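User: I'm new to structure prediction. If I give you an amino acid sequence, what do you actually give back? Let's try with this one:
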Amino acid sequence: MSRIPVYLLLSTALLAGCGPREEYVRPDPPLPLAWPEAGGPDQASRGRPPASIGWREFFPDTKLKGLIALALENNRDLRLGIARLQEARAQYGLAEADRLPTVNLVGSTSASRVSGSLTSSAAQDTRRSDLNISLLSFELDFWGRLASLSDAARASYLATEAGQQASRLSLIAEVANAYFSVLEAEERRAITLATQAAWEQTVEVTKSGREFGAATKLDVLLVEGALASSRVELAAIERQRSNALNALNLLVGTTVVAVPVGEPLRMQRMKVAIAAGIPAATLMQRPDIIAAEQRLIAAHANIAAVRAAFFPRLVLTAGLGLASPALATLFNSSSQSWNFQPSISLPLFDGGRSAGNLDVAVARRDVAVADYEKTIQQAFREVADLLAAQTTYAAQRAANEALATAREERAQAIRARYRAGAATLLEVLDATRAFHESQQSLVQVQRAQLSSAAQLFKALGGGEG
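Assistant: Good question. You get back a string of structure tokens that encode the predicted 3D arrangement of the chain. For your 465 residues, that looks like this:
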């Protein structure tokens, strides 16, 4: 008889989880087959999966690599994401544990005496020793309720993990953008300082010329106004530089006292530019899209778990052990004991609670589908915009370079004419100001092009390493 519960436990365990469960089917992504832009920044990399391109390979600047490594180690938002990932992993472990029986080894001994005044005979002594292996409330998962809850927990964990990867990519792109902004501020500051020094020299020359009648008071006011304008611009650039440095410090997670400036903007080249030749379906490997799909899978699994609440639940409680009135005889063959207590429950009336829970689960699944499709559409638009930006920024940069060269030559020619007395000071001021503006604009376009490339790396789900 002592073998009966073991046989029953094994038999019922084999039946657990045999209920049918609806398979998850991925919705057709609302995604075109190709990008609207046919060209790309580097046709040599056509067709290479973005996930195979690590940030160390994508960003060649050694100083930038060091800052990204610091950020990945120290950024507080990233640490928060890691903690949430550990929490999700633990929740999945708890859901998995619910599918397994809880078995405890329990030993106890007791002794008691009943007073003779309470009985018709002498006082009664009672002693008992027990040693049991107990199976506590193990639910037989015929309808897949626990399995579905486990699937939902696993999908939630994977969604959190993908979200953490998306956060890492975003951090890498943001650090690169902040670094390029610092470089931009540094270069614009240098240009403005050089222009300011030239205006200071021109003011001194003009004032000296007025003493000898070679310049008028209006000439002095013109050059002093140009000098004051350059000082106003320098103050604004200094503020932008400070803001960019503060943003970089926040992202890196530690104070960068002096930013290690690497190559200038005009020399920055992404060694591996991600081109538009890859298929649009590559977007499905983006971490944020993976996270959205895992949330959809979790919502789908929750529907199956809620549906299982409409069916009977069978719970087993069993035990196998030894019981004896004396500890010395506990392990005798006659001391064996066992118990087996299956229970079944079937919901008959719950005021519509089960149906309401199912409606909520279905609605959340529909929300997850819409969120999944919206995430894909937003990702496609983001990549399409950035691919277009790469093409247009390249053309804009080339035009700015030609414009800066032309204005520089014009400024030099007008200065030569001014020294020969064939041009006015106003013409010199206008040509110099135009050249200065073209230099500043060129630096801004260079920074925008690099920032766009960094965002494209993130948008296409570039690799981690």
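You can read the tokens as a compact description of the fold. Here is one thing that stands out. Confidence is low (pLDDT under 50) at residues 1-20, 38-47.
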